[in-house]
Amino acid sequence: MESQGDALNQLLSDELEGKFALLETSSIDDDLASLKKELSGTTKGTLCAASRDDVIHKLFTELAYRYK
């Protein structure tokens, strides 16, 4: 019984470590750079507040989906 508990704890910790490793290898800077490329057609300062909010919402949605 104790061996089963130890094995389960090992599996769970390996899964958690794998999730952290995935987070460390992913680059938020790359995600931000791709969003900047999408916006490159607009001139600086021409985005209205609603458009900026849409971009921020899109970024957070993509990051939340990616790092579930």
UniProtKB/TrEMBL annotation:
Name the record gives this protein: Uncharacterized protein
Origin: domain of life: Eukaryota
Similarity annotation: Belongs to the PspA/Vipp/IM30 family.
